[in-house]
Specification:
369 residues; alpha/beta; Rossmann fold; GMP Synthetase, Chain A, domain 3; eight-stranded mixed sheet; three-stranded antiparallel sheet
Length: 369
């Protein structure tokens, strides 16, 4: 079970092109198409991170290999910029036929410029995002000019690094000046052309996902209040994956399983969320207590681990049959605290509300609605 779905379609020249769709945990609010950099593949860091981040925002995203690259058929030698544009349009056509046409086009390097050129042939697209896209190269000349960019009538987001030594930032300036509003520019200061640092790829993914929500329609499966009441949580997920969307008050985040358990590792698993709740509650409780006592507690680190052991292996457990859940909780307290104060804070950590809830008798009522 995984939310990454294989997707094959016919390219512009008839070869079979291979792609993968990152499916959200809920019904997609929109679809997106990612075009990778020249001579890269759909497995590039930028392609994987951006596609995953958009899926977390409810946007199903297809990343595919251009002709002759990765798992796609055909010969890469001799492929042109015009062929890349045609492959993007073919990918959009295939999405339209099987699911829904992409509302968002995203491209890295030459894939970004090709996405700009393809946008006018995909009427459903409302936004285009480019990452380190060339504009002044000989390949692009004649296929995309400033007039064509000015006629796009689509929201545009440009990412470019001032230190890009493959595509000069002057290319980004010319694209930005030629485009009409709404348009935005994000400087990737310190990043290289291929987004080799994981942090740079993640930054692009997160900013892009946030930007896209301004131009894409919201289509929730059910009407939820803008701010849900405290203490109420809604969890949604499709049966085709482990990925879950969690909403608490006005915040949305995800849960998932790691790769080795059939998930895509896009969020903490359920037990990690349980431990996170206990750890957060412990830290907050110590902060409140130390504040009231005016003790010099500067910071708290809580490290937790869950395990299950045989009851007869537990020396201080009340039962000696079956399996026992064990949560190890280690506290690191920063500050000029006395030994007596540290011991007192250790005792107080067991009095946080979540800690006591886990030790109390718990009844969970389930019903169909």
């Amino acid at each position: 079970m995984a939310e990454i779905e294989r997707f094959e379609f016919s390219g512009a020249a008839g070869q079979t092109l291979a792609g993968q769709i990152h499916m959200p945990a809920v019904t997609p609010v929109a679809w997106a198409l990612f075009a990778h950099c020249f001579s890269c593949s759909k497995e590039s860091r930028a392609a994987r991170y951006v596609s995953a981040a958009l899926a977390e925002q409810g946007i199903a995203t297809l990343r595919f290999d251009f002709t002759g690259l990765g798992e796609s058929e055909g010969a890469f030698e001799g492929t042109t910029f015009a062929r890349d544009v045609e492959d993007i349009v073919a990918a959009a056509d295939a999405l339209r036929e099987r699911y829904r046409a992409p509302a968002l086009l995203v491209g890295h390097s030459r894939g970004g410029t090709a996405s700009l050129a393809a946008a006018s042939h995909i009427p459903e697209a409302v936004g285009v995002a480019t990452i380190g896209a060339p504009f002044r190269s000989s390949e692009v000349a004649g296929a995309l000019d400033t007039d064509a960019i000015g006629r796009l009538k689509k929201a545009l987001l440009i990412f470019h690094s001032p230190q890009d030594d493959v595509v000069a930032i002057e290319d980004a300036r010319e694209i930005f000046v030629a485009a009409r509003h709404p348009k935005s520019f994000v400087s990737l200061d310190g990043a290289d052309h291929l987004l080799g640092r994981r942090s740079d790829a993640r930054y692009v993914a997160n900013v892009l996902a946030a930007w896209a929500t301004r131009y894409l329609p919201e289509e929730p499966e059910e009407e939820l209040p803008e701010d849900m009441p405290e203490g109420e949580v809604v969890v949604e997920g499709k049966t085709t994956s482990f990925l879950q969307r969690i909403r608490a008050r006005n915040r949305t985040f995800t849960a998932d399983e790691p790769l080795e358990k059939g998930g895509a590792n896009l969020g903490p698993n359920p037990y990690e969320l349980l431990l996170a709740g206990l750890g957060a509650c412990t830290s907050m409780t110590l902060k409140l207590y130390a504040g009231r006592k005016e003790w010099p507690l500067d910071a708290v680190r809580v490290t937790l681990r869950h395990d299950r052991i045989h009851a007869d292996d537990c020396e201080d457990c009340e039962t000696d049959k079956g399996m026992i859940d064990i949560i190890d909780k280690k506290l690191e307290l920063e500050g000029d605290l006395s030994e007596e104060q540290r011991e007192r804070l250790l005792a107080i950590s067991a009095r946080c509300p979540v800690h006591r809830t886990l030790l109390n008798e718990i009844k969970i009522r389930s019903e169909l609605v």
